[in-house]
Amino acid sequence: MGACQESDEEMAGRQVGGPEPPNPYQAQQLKDMLRQVADTTGQTFSGELPDDPAFIYHSEVACRAVEIMRRHLQQPPWEYFHAVQAAFYLEACNINAAAELIRLAEPFNMKSDVMTELLTSEAVIEATRAKFERARKLGANALPSILLDTGEGPKLVCGGWVTAEYLRRYLEARIKLAHGPAH
């Protein structure tokens, strides 16, 4: 695909089990899922879950932090999003912990007191949940879900883990159908 393609991200949460720490069966399900993702994508994962009794596998708080960083940076917060993903998948950090999200925001000149306040802000919570609902309405019910807007509103391209090569070929074909060859 051409270098001039514009991209953005929308957040949608994922939760296994209830709003409490995973039980041993759920923890094993999560580890199996991470192993399947690694096998499918070739990506490296620690294969571990955070060693924190307060850990819950639900991404709403992390998605709030990404929304906060979008507003702070006034652009899609790809670098922060990558840092959050790496903290969870590579370092097994609890990305539901405010202290971890604040630590990850420090390189972007986000003040810790501002991040702390905004993580519980009704405006940020409502904006994040609205994005979750929008994603569900578009059919995004697996992570990651890739949406493509070729001028007629976003459409679901794929849901779930696929290889980069598959995704590249698929997106090029969709863009070509909509606009002719990608530049």
Give a verbal description of the structure:
The chain is mainly alpha-helical and 183 residues long. It folds into two domains: 7-137, Cyclin A, domain 1; 139-183, no CATH class. The chain has seven helices and two strands; from the N terminus they run ααααααββα. It has a two-stranded antiparallel ribbon. Strand 1 and strand 2 form a beta hairpin. Helix 4 packs across helix 5 (112-119). The chain is globular, with a radius of gyration of 17 Å. The model is unreliable at 1-5 (pLDDT under 50).
Poorly predicted ranges (pLDDT <50, ≥5 residues)? 1-5
* C-alpha termini separation: 7 Å
Largest sheet, in brief, is: 2 strands, antiparallel
Name of the top-level CATH class of the largest domain: Mainly Alpha
Quaternary organisation: single chain
Provide the descriptors you would attach to this structure in a database record.
183 residues, mainly alpha, Cyclin A, domain 1, 2 strands, 50% helix, 6% strand, disordered N terminus
The gist of it:
By secondary structure, the protein is mainly alpha-helical. Helix content is about 50%, strand content about 5%.
Helix-strand layout with pairing:
Layout: H1 24-41, H2 60-73, H3 78-89, H4 98-105, H5 112-119, H6 122-137, E1 145-149, E2 154-159, H7 164-179
Antiparallel strand pairs: 1-2
Helix pairs in contact: 2-4, 2-6, 4-5
